[in-house]
Amino acid sequence: MTATVVVLAGQGASTEYLANALRDKVEVAAYILEDVPSRSRMLKRRIRHLGLVPVIGQVVFVLFQKLILNRLARNRIGELEEEYVLRRGYPDGTRMRFVQSVNEAATLSLLQSLEPDLVVVNGTRIIARRVLEGVDAPFINTHVGITPRYRGVHGGYWAIAEGQEALFGATVHYVDPGVDTGEVIAQVTGTPHPRDSFPTYPVLQYGFVLPTLVDVIARMAQGETPKPSAPMAERSVQYFHPTLWGYLWRWITTGTR
Questions:
Q1: Burial class (CB in 10 A: 0-12, 13-18, 19+), 147
Q2: Are 234 and 185 in contact (CB under 8 A)?
Q3: 189, 206, 102, 82: which is closest to 146 by C-alpha?
Q4: Fewer beta carbons within 10 Å, N or C terminal of the chain?
Q5: What is the residue-level pLDDT of the chain in tens, covering all 257 positions?
Q6: Alpha-carbon distance values, 156 to 41, 98, 121, 203, 219 (Å)
Q7: From CA 257, how far away is CA 243, in angstroms rounded?
Q8: CA–CA distance from 122 to each of 6, 21, 88, 144 (Å)?
Q9: Are the beta carbons of 170 and 207 closer than 8 angstroms?
Q10: pTM assigned to the model
């Protein structure tokens, strides 16, 4: 009997890519989509963790990305979506439920009512232990970075910025309460084009890992439990958004865009 698969995800392009890739391959009982986290709460948490000055630099960089980098990358993103068959929007008949947070009690109740055999996570905030342990099913996630070496955000960018081109890749892994610290199921690497940059790296990474992710989900839906595999790099580091001045310095000194 085919397993019950539930997708627990944030609202964004990569979740839409996933929904279209799974169509006709894996039946998904429901997509549980969480709202965008409160920006003010995120900023307060980052300031406590990183300090005020770095967070100001990150906020300014995000504005720079939205106003300039994303516009410059628009055509390249379209090319990547076409090359890797990354489709926007949700297929007809997609069963969607909306929650404020993956960690609220209502989300756990909803998950429990669906009785999933597999929960596929995509683009959510860190999931609390009580949610992970409140459902009798494995949780798997896709991270656009090679874990544990490039945990956190923008793993592809940081690999290129540090001269670790061989670790420009993505990871399918089991989810635990840490930040991208779960056991590795599969890792895939690729090579960015000279036209690729900060906004296009994650699209490229998602594009070349998506077939692997769909294959893992399909096998698990048939009852297989993939064994964890050794990561490509053992060192564990968590990365954050670059500051504007850090990004510009790397662009000037190393050519990393």
A1: buried
A2: no
A3: 189
A4: N
A5: 579 999 999 999 999 999 999 999 999 999 999 998 777 778 888 888 889 999 999 999 999 999 999 999 999 999 999 999 999 999 999 999 999 999 999 999 999 999 999 999 999 999 999 999 999 999 999 999 999 999 999 999 999 999 999 999 999 999 999 999 999 999 999 999 999 999 999 999 999 999 999 999 999 999 999 999 999 999 999 999 999 999 999 999 999 99
A6: 26, 30, 19, 10, 27
A7: 13
A8: 11, 13, 15, 11
A9: no
A10: 0.95
What's the distance, CA 12 to chain centroid? 10
Q: How far apart, in whole angstroms, are the C-alpha atoms of residue 247 and residue 69?
A: 12
DSSP of 117-172, one letter per residue? SEEEEESPPPPPHHHHTTSSS-EEEEESS-TTTTEES-HHHHHHHTT-GGG-EEEE
DSSP H or E segment with residue 131: helix 129-132
Burial profile 236-247: b = 16 or more Cβ within 10 angstroms, e = fewer: eeebebbbbeeb
CA distance 123 to 60: 23
Distance CA 171, CA 188 (A): 7
Whether the link from the prior residue into 54 is cis, omega within 30° of 0, is no
Question: Could you tell me which residues are beta bridge partners of residue 173?
Answer: 141, 184
Going along the chain from its start, the domains and CATH numbers come out as 5-254 (3.40.50.12230)
Nearest to 29 by CA among 87, 102, 106, 113: 113
Residue 121 in contact with residue 34, Cβ under 8 Å? no
Tokens read off for 184: 């590795």
Q: What is the largest CA-CA distance in the chain?
A: 56
